[in-house]
């Protein structure tokens, strides 16, 4: 099983719908991140969390919210999806202290 | 705020050749880490190599090596004896003591047979 698991892997949703992307990890890491990948724009940080009570906005948090339900779970929500939120979304974890990030398999989200 | 710049959106090289991918960054921090990640068509993000800023010696992992120039804030990736399996997007990334990880826009690398 993967250390960082994202569900769903692919999703098509309609404009205006609420959608939640889920991430769970078995690495025991405190740091968790949500990124969005768009062609030509690389990976941009949406939110990051250092523990259950420490959640921080990244560079593109507008239109998104997150919930850190436990050390191992970090969910990303789109309250009212819009077409320009169509992208590949990645969850990542890190042990902090200058260690690398470990990524989930990504969620391909299409908003129609 | 830290920024990471990859100036080569796309590159192509012949198999077995050596290729260098460029990355520059901007920070006022003195202690940080730099990474190169590979994203093949499977879309999985795979760590290729990492460099600690306080280490002057350039990191090496098999055919992959970096040229880290701290004063110039440059962190290029060299792939030697390139293989078809090296075809992928490559992302340069920066991490400072706040544990935020900032990525560049990526370089799409094609290895031609």
Give a written overview of the molecule:
The complex is a heterodimer of chains A (112) and B (113). Chain A is mainly beta. Chain A is built from no helices and eleven strands. In chain B, strands 2, 5, 6, 10, 11 and 12 form a six-stranded mixed sheet that branches. Chain B has a four-stranded antiparallel sheet with strand order 3-9-8-7, with no helix packed on it. Chain B has a two-stranded antiparallel sheet with strand order 1-4. The chains are: A mainly beta (112), B mainly beta (113). The A-B interface holds A 31, 33, 35, 40-45, 48, 50, 58, 88, 90, 92, 94, 96, 98, 100-101, 103, 105-106 and B 6, 9, 31-33, 35, 43-45, 47, 50, 52, 91, 93, 95, 97, 99-106.
Describe the secondary structure blueprint for this structure.
The complex is a heterodimer of chains A (112) and B (113).
Chain A: E1 4-7, E2 10-13, E3 19-25, E4 31-38, E5 42-51, E6 54-57, E7 65-70, E8 73-78, E9 87-94, E10 102-103, E11 107-111
Parallel strand pairs in A: 2-11
Antiparallel strand pairs in A: 1-3, 3-8, 4-5, 4-9, 5-6, 7-8, 9-10, 9-11
Chain B: E1 3-5, E2 10-14, E3 19-21, E4 24-26, E5 33-39, E6 46-52, E7 60-61, E8 64-69, E9 74-79, E10 88-95, E11 101-103, E12 107-112
What's the quick description here?
With 112 residues, chain A is mainly beta. Chain A has no helices and 11 strands. Chain B has strands spanning 3-5, 10-14, 19-21, 24-26, 33-39, 46-52, 60-61, 64-69, 74-79, 88-95, 101-103, 107-112.
